[in-house]
Amino acid sequence: MSLISEGANVGAPGGARLVDASLYEPSNAEVGDYIALLKPRVMSLVVFTALVGLAVAPGSIHPFVAFTALLCIAVGAGASGALNMWFDADIDALMTRTQRRPVPAGRVRPGEALAFGLTLSVFAVVVLGLMVNLLSAALLAFTIFFYAVIYTMWLKRSTPQNIVIGGAAGAFPPMIGWAAVTGTVSVESLLLFAIIFFWTPPHFWALAIYKKSDYGRAGVPMLPNVAGDAHTRLQILLYTLILVPLGVAPWALGYTSALYGAVAVATGAAMVALAVQVYREVSPADRACRHLFAFSILYLFLLYAVLLVDRGWGGLIARVAA
Question: Does the pTM exceed 0.90?
Fold first, then answer.
């Protein structure tokens, strides 16, 4: 990467090469900068969906073990964010949405972000394996690898399908929570995975349409930049039409009560209506995309929140009290 070698060699008399010693000095980063490396907003969603997976899973788990599992999942998510910011510092510096992040802004050195991310990754996986079980640790390790290497280092810069394939990384947390309790992967946990997996493309492509110029400057082949807005709007609609039945499936398959079913149907109908508006949108202001992007966050939160109340919260309290 160019950031690693930038400013390293300076010409000197007699052909000598001088090394800029400041590259090896610690930065003046504050605690807030390292917290920013963890992508706390993304981490909060990861922890929430992992909590739902843990709470709805059958079986029992000691409250301390449950807390440890969630802590490790949170730390692993933060580690992924730090590794992502380390590798993407060059393109982050070109995008208005990301140029104030700690690494491109110069508050944290690239090597510090890398070391921070690797240290947290090892800690999270090892502790989860020792304190919870090996399957959940293996899933967490794969999730970190998938996001930091498969998505960040390869897919993001090489294919407009980056969000589709890379979305798997964000879909694993409820499976990890489930595995922390049961030590297994089941159809229900795969369904929780599928909901987030198919939610990710319409969510991020809506953002990509109205941030298209940012991705263009950075050279990231997001779908609107490669295939155009019209094709992207069609893909948003198609993925939404797949997502909504998946959102209803936990009720249709008998895993939840009518409360979840009613919320899933109502919010799913709203998602489809907004996706249709996006498909028909021709305004340069991209208002429909902004509305879909914002509502998609609420949609996913409501599905998982109602699932937690409907299926998991009472059982989780009973397990903690036992």
Answer: no
- Cα dihedral 274, 279, 280, 282, rounded to 10, equals 110
> Do residues 110 and 131 touch, judged by C-beta distance below 8 A?
no
Q: Which residues contact 239 (CB under 8 A, 6 or more apart)?
A: 198, 201, 202
Is residue 1 a contact partner of residue 87, using CB atoms and an 8 Å limit? yes
What 3-state class would DSSP assign to 101? Answer: coil
The Cα–Cα gap between 293 and 204 comes to 7
* Alpha-helix runs per DSSP H in 133-228: 134-145, 156-158, 162-171, 173-182, 187-210, 212-218, 223-227
Mean pLDDT rounded to a whole number for the chain:
87
Sign (positive/negative) of CA torsion 66, 68, 74, 79? negative
Two tokens, residue 314: 């009472």
Q: Exposed, middle or buried: residue 3 (CB in 10 Å: 0-12, 13-18, 19+)?
A: middle
Phi-psi region of 109 (alpha: psi -120 to 50; beta: other; left: phi over 0): beta
For residue 57, the 8-state DSSP code is: S
pLDDT tens for each residue of 262-298: 999 999 999 999 999 999 875 555 889 999 999 999 9
**The pair of three-digit structure tokens given for residue 150, joined into one six-digit string:** 């498969």
Tell the residue number behind the tokens 């995309």, with chain if given.
289
CA distance 68 to 57: 16
Q: Which residues pair with 221 in a beta bridge?
A: none
Phi, psi of 10 (to 5 degrees): -130, 135
Give pLDDT tens digits for 41-98. 999 999 999 999 999 998 889 999 999 999 999 999 999 999 999 999 999 998 888 8
Half-sphere exposure of 53 (CA within 13 A, CB side): 36
